[in-house]
Design brief:
single chain; 83 residues; alpha+beta; two-stranded antiparallel ribbon; 2 helices; 4 strands
Length: 83
């Protein structure tokens, strides 16, 4: 029987993220990610940045939909109440 070989099966990564609004940092949860060994060479240079970019787009979209109404819209609603 020959010598045993060390074999990488997968890598467990625990990203830690914070939302930064320029004034405060707010922790945002992210689960641990299991990367199969055959994907590890390209994970940090390709897959991970793509996942982060998609997550940022989702955060931006959620922020845009939570933005207060425009002044023009508020004025229309206030005018409707004066009838």
């Amino acid at each position: 029987m020959g010598a045993s070989k060390l074999r990488l099966v997968h890598v467990l990564v625990q990203p830690v993220f914070m939302l930064d609004d320029g004034e405060t940092l707010k922790p945002i949860g992210h689960p641990a990610v299991t990367i199969p060994a055959d994907e590890w060479p390209t994970y940090s240079g390709e897959r991970f940045p793509r996942e982060i970019q998609n997550w940022q787009k989702q955060i931006d979209a959620e922020h845009a939909s939570a933005t207060p109404e425009s002044a023009a819209d508020r004025g229309k609603e206030q005018g409707a109440g004066n009838r």
